[in-house]
């Protein structure tokens, strides 16, 4: 990026000093294992909202999904609608209150711990922890890669140095200060992100002559859609793709539904609800969280789509072509071309804040799942503060190693994959556990096994982007995917989540039938 490195280095140092000061505050207030995992259960509503939002929105959401909006168009704004409606309103008011209430009553300290105690099942706690420890490093590594690539380009240093430095700085405050440090630093990072995105949308519309003129110009560009995209269903940047087309399936099933629904069962987000003092705190967090998500996803999807207008007016090319046919380069290319130098520095700080806030939450969630939920199964195990810190340290090392192994262009795909896996494995059982008077352990176990199994099989053998990359289907069956179009572009979530929900319903109904017979004293054979 074209920016004075010395100035940005000075700004970054000030930012890091502020982070370390906040981390120290968290460290001083962290006395016991529960402080490390749940921040004392009395966090201020504004901090909950900003921490939740900053954790939810990573660099991939700003750069990766912004570039995706430039490609697919403003149809991605449906994801903003889902993010606010489901990710904030439904999550805080409905799921959040029940999570806080039950979590406090059962004294649960992590998401797997909550699942285990609701269903009185060690299997649920162990399996939930295992999915987090095995699946979340994929997401954490993707965020780590995105941040490291950004630092590498900005400071002109090696990728290895950037990745290790980024991971170590984040690790220091997570390991020492636990969730309190994560929430304090998330808040600062959330404020930086809000300021950056507000200025970004204001400058965009000024550059393009106003809101109406910019949006009308984008609509009139529908005739410029490349023939290859039009053939797969693209109809323009202000309209949805043709229903049932390959682009429609990718946009609706993977991006809008995959990320929009997946947020409800994200362990690193669910645990935020258990830090609230009472239901009133969660109610007060809703408007702040709603505005934050609107200003993050709504702005970046709008800016992404409208970069086509900017680049076409300035260069005669669409954004995708102007950015060298790399979706991840569209937003940075626009920032460099259209924004003043001082904003380039602010935007880079925004990206750094987005990456660090998400990464710190993932490190903390993985580490506590390992330290509290998996290792605690060992005989005579006693949970302590240092064991939690050791768990976090180990998972950070795993994530760093994975980040060196993973292929390129993996950031957005890994994000959608992890959210899809969480929704398929956890969402039906989690919902059942929160809202049923007598939750069924067998139904929850069945749902978790069916959901995670179906998601894994569809990913490995049908969804072409993953099955082709993994190569397992090719080795076993001699072809990249077992099914043909359109199944190869249908996201695993669309198959696995309904199967998990149906299996839960069937087993729950059988359990209810058995219990009803027992209570009525029937002599009919139980199922």
TrEMBL record:
It is a multi-pass membrane protein. Pfam families: SSF (PF00474). Gene3D superfamilies: Sodium/glucose cotransporter (1.20.1730.10). InterPro entries: Na/Glc_symporter_sf, Na/solute_symporter, Sodium:Solute_Symporter. It is found in: Cell membrane. CDD domains: SLC5sbd. Its main location: membrane. Keywords: Cell membrane, Ion transport, Membrane, Sodium, Sodium transport, Symport, Transmembrane, Transmembrane helix, Transport. The chain crosses the membrane at residues 6-25, 46-65, 71-95, 126-151, 157-184, 191-211, 247-265, 286-311, 342-365, 386-405, 411-431, 443-464, 493-515. GO terms for biological process: proline transport. The keyword Ion transport applies. One of its GO terms (cellular component) is plasma membrane. GO terms for molecular function: L-proline transmembrane transporter activity; proline:sodium symporter activity. Belongs to the sodium:solute symporter (SSF) (TC 2.A.21) family. This is Sodium:solute symporter. It comes from Methanooceanicella nereidis.
């Amino acid at each position: 990026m074209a920016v004075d490195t010395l100035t940005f280095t000075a700004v970054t140092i000030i930012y890091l000093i502020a982070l370390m000061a906040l981390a120290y505050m968290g460290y001083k207030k962290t006395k016991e294992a529960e402080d490390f995992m749940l921040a004392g259960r009395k966090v201020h509503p504004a901090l909950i909202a900003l921490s939740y939002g900053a954790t939810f929105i990573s660099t991939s959401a700003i750069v990766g999904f912004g570039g995706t909006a430039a490609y697919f168009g403003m149809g991605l704004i449906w994801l903003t609608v889902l993010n606010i409606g489901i990710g904030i309103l439904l999550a805080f008011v409905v799921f959040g209150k029940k999570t806080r209430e039950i979590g406090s009553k059962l004294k649960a300290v992590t998401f797997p711990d909550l699942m285990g105690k609701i269903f009185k099942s060690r299997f649920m706690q162990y399996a939930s922890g295992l999915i987090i420890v095995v699946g979340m490093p994929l997401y954490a590594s993707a965020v780590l890669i995105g941040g490291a690539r950004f630092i590498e380009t900005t400071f002109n240093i090696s990728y290895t140095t950037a990745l290790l430095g980024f991971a170590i700085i984040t690790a220091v405050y997570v390991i020492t200060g636990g969730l309190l440090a994560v929430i304090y630093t998330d808040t600062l990072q959330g404020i930086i992100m809000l300021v950056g995105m507000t200025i970004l949308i204001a400058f965009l519309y000024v550059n393009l002559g106003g809101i109406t003129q910019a949006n009308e110009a984008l609509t009139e560009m529908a005739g410029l859609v490349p023939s290859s995209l039009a053939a797969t269903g693209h109809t323009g940047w202000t309209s949805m793709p043709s229903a049932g087309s390959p682009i429609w399936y990718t946009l609706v099933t993977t991006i809008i539904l995959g990320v929009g629904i997946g947020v409800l069962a994200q362990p690193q987000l669910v645990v935020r609800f258990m830090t609230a003092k009472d239901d009133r705190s969660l109610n007060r967090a809703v408007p702040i969280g709603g505005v934050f998500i609107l200003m993050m996803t709504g702005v970046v999807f709008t800016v992404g789509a409208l970069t086509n207008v900017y680049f076409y007016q300035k260069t005669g090319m669409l954004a995708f072509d102007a950015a060298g046919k790399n979706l991840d380069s569209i937003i940075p290319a626009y920032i460099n071309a259209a924004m003043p130098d001082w904003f380039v520095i602010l935007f880079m700080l925004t990206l750094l804040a987005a990456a660090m806030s998400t990464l710190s939450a993932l490190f903390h969630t993985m580490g506590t799942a390992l330290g509290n939920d998996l290792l605690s199964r060992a005989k005579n195990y006693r949970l302590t503060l240092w064991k939690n810190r050791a768990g976090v340290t180990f998972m950070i090392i795993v994530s760093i190693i994975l980040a060196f192994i993973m292929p390129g262009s993996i950031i957005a795909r890994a994000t959608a994959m992890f959210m899809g896996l969480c929704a398929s494995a956890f969402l039906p059982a989690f919902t059942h556990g929160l809202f049923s008077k007598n939750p069924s352990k067998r139904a929850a176990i069945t749902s978790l096994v069916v959901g995670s199994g179906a998601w894994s099989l569809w990913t490995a053998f049908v969804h072409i982007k993953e099955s082709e990359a993994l190569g397992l289907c090719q080795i076993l069956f001699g072809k990249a995917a077992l099914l043909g179009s359109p199944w190869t572009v249908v996201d695993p979530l669309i198959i696995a989540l309904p199967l998990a929900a149906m299996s839960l319903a069937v087993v729950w109904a059988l359990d209810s039938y058995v219990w009803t017979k027992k209570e009525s004293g029937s002599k009919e054979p139980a199922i």
